[in-house]
Amino acid sequence: MLAPRAGMTREDVLRAIARLTIAERARLEATEALREMGVIRGRRLAEGLGQAIAAAFYGIEPPTTVGFDLETDDGTLIHVRTFHCTAKRRRAAVDTPHQAYDLLLALRLDAAYAPVEAIEVPREVVQEYEHQGRLSWTKRLARDPRVRHIPGYAL
């Protein structure tokens, strides 16, 4: 076990643990409230939030079961992939779906789960850019004229 830094007291550590405990309890309560509202249906918080954000963006109801993608009123199937990112960890690898879909919506959330940005990629573009079942959210992909960039404020 690592020793506390010089000048740090046992009380400093205990106060930090108490703050962490309060924050964790608040996170668990908020997660449970989102579950009760039906926003989160599975075990993955970011995935549930991403589905809810995407459904609101497209003006449709989120699916009622876990693992199903969105379907717009005109029958367009949208596969949603959500990334919870931090300043030090900006995820870019997207597992491509195996089931049928028309559009892939890749959505980035910040550390506080707020939408940062998204890209909407047609299936044929995904197939061009993917490698071994993975798509990388690169500048090249985002700049492709067939890819729609959606800023966080629009989500």
Any overview of this molecule?
By secondary structure, the chain is of the alpha+beta class. The protein is built from 4 helices and 7 strands. It has helices at 10-37, 45-58, 123-129, 139-143, and strands spanning 70-71, 77-84, 93-95, 103-109, 115-122, 134-136, 148-151. The strands form 2 sheets. Strands 1-2-4-5-7 form a 5-stranded mixed beta sheet. The protein has a two-stranded antiparallel ribbon with strand order 3-6. The longest helix has 28 residues, at 10-37. The chain is globular and about 60 Å long. The mean pLDDT is 85.
* Mean pLDDT across all amino acids: 85
Mass-distribution shape: globular
Please state the CA-atom Rg, rounded to the nearest Å.
19 Å
Main sheet: strand order: 1-2-4-5-7
Residues in β-strands, percent? 15-25%
Number of helices: 4
The low-confidence parts are none
N- and C-termini, Cα separation: 44 Å
Task: Give the tally of β-strands.
Answer: 7
Q: How many distinct folded domains?
A: 2
Biggest beta sheet summary: 5 strands, mixed
Which class of secondary structure composition applies to the elements? alpha+beta
Helix percentage range: 25-40%
Order of helices and strands: HHEEEEEHEHE
